[in-house]
Amino acid sequence: MRHLSRLLIVIFLGFAQSLFAQPDSLFLKPKVVQEFYGWNNKKEVGVYINQVSFTNWNAGGVNSISAIFTGKYIAKFKDEKSFWNSSIDARYGVNSQQDQKLQKTEDLFEVISNYGYQNSKNSNWFYSARFSFSTQFTDGFNYPDTDNPISRFMAPGYLFFGAGVEYGRNIERLSLYMSPLTFKTTFVLDRNLSNEGAFGVEPAIYDLDGNVIKEGKRIRREFGIQLTNQFEDELWENVKVKSLLRLYTDYINSFGNIDVDWEITFDMQVNRYIKALFGSHIRYDDDINTLVERDEITNVPTVVVGPRVQWKQLLGIGVVVDLDILINKEESGS
Under a CB-based contact definition with an 8 Å cutoff, are residues 260 and 282 in contact? Predict the structure, then answer.
């Protein structure tokens, strides 16, 4: 918890500075934002590829190739007093190494929808409601063990729904959402994983012979407070940064133990279709234990390694196509 506390302090200091600093202090160029009312949609698909190959390389190495397929749909609505932003994000990545089976590197399906109402035109505060849902497409494994899935579709699945207030002087670039009324639901619909008590659900109860007396629960419900900080801007020409930080703590179960989900990406546009991407994703969930062992005689689970900070990094170059631009180009015949 000491390392986590330090991490949270750094996160809060960094985003507090970004919230109250002027554009010059952020090394950003001030922008003149022209108000646009109505719907604004964006659809894009892409693939990022990394490849390493060795031939008579005396330092050694393993040939490998990895690919991440992406799809995103964004719909934004704005009028004089309200906004409604929604997005669907799908990512799936695989890695192939010499003399090894195909392994999964990325797997995400996420839906986010956020509504805000501004009571006064002179205010920077919005009454806001936010919904999000996320899960994965296929089974996840602790490689090289591919016989026992550690995660599956809707195991886990996470649903958040809350209401609160949102601060944003320029809501398109920077916002801070605070919800003291947030419902969190964790789904573990796979019976084997729910019986194990994976992802924080209540595990099954066994007798001394290993027979299930009471099945594990497939749903865990929580009620707590959520803070969300979102920042998106162009740092330099053709270099964009996007940061999404989500903090959650439950009122009833271990209040003060904060779940952290912080994803930051740097998007570098080479030309109309070629992009380079660097990303970092940090997670900490107090309900997810790293290693749990079950006693062979009593069937009582014992936590060997508790929750830990999870960190994933991504660096790739790929082809990303904006479908709206492509469709409009074909319709115009240019």
Answer: yes
The answer to whether 285 touches 297, Cβ cutoff 8 Å, is: no
The CATH number of whichever domain residue 283 belongs to comes to 2.40.230
Q: Are 143 and 169 in contact (CB under 8 A)?
A: no
> Is residue 1 assigned to a domain?
no
Question: pTM of the full predicted structure?
Answer: 0.84
288 and 261 in contact (C-beta within 8 Å)? no
Token output for 228: 């969300």
Q: What would you measure as the largest C-alpha separation in the chain, in angstroms?
A: 74
Distance separating alpha carbons of residues 221 and 283, to the nearest angstrom: 20
Q: Using only the alpha carbons of the chain, give its radius of gyration.
A: 23
DSSP structure class, residue 151: B
What are the angstrom distances between the C-alpha of 224 and each of 111, 172, 179? 20, 26, 9
Residue whose tokens read 């599956």: 152
Q: How many domains does the chain have?
A: 1
Instruction: List, for residues 198-257, the tens digit of each pLDDT value.
Output: 998 998 988 877 788 999 999 999 999 999 999 999 988 899 999 999 999 999 888 888
Residue with tokens 């330092």: 59
pLDDT digits 0-9 by tens, 21-39: 444 434 444 555 556 788 9
**Residue 202 in 3-state DSSP?**
coil
Provide the domain limits for residue 143. Answer: 40-332
Residue by residue, DSSP assigns 163-181 as EEEEE-TTTTTEEEEEEEE
pLDDT digits (tens, 9 = 90+) for 145-203: 889 899 999 999 999 999 999 998 777 788 999 999 999 999 999 999 999 889 989 98
Cβ neighbours of 13 (radius 10 Å) = 10
Tell me the C-alpha distance between 124 and 174, whole Å: 11
* Omega within 30 of 0 (cis) for the link into 203: no
